[in-house]
Design a protein that fits this description.
By secondary structure, this protein is α+β, with helices and mostly antiparallel strands. The protein has three helices and three strands; from the N terminus they run E-H-E-H-E-H. It has one domain: Hypothetical protein rpa1041 (Alpha-Beta Plaits, 2-Layer Sandwich). The chain is globular. The model has no long low-confidence stretch (mean pLDDT 86).
Length: 69
């Protein structure tokens, strides 16, 4: 599981954790990727504050289908 793909980009950690929980409930491994400084200061400029929700490539289609419902 070295090849992780972005399935969603959120505007902050709370939304990212909701997406993460939804995918994990379907047994899909999830990793969150974000810049810590954006979360500390609540910045949403130039990508700061954004959170990328990633899944292993082999789960990509299933994750996208879940998120489209």
């Amino acid at each position: 599981m070295d090849n992780w793909k972005v399935v969603k980009v959120t505007s902050g950690l709370p939304e990212a954790h909701i997406v993460k929980g939804l995918l994990e409930a379907s047994d899909i491994p999830v990793r969150l990727e974000y810049e810590a400084i954006g979360q500390i200061y609540g910045l949403t400029v130039d990508g700061l504050g954004q959170v990328k929700v990633l899944v292993p490539e082999e789960y990509l289609e299933e994750a996208l289908a879940i998120l489209s419902d």
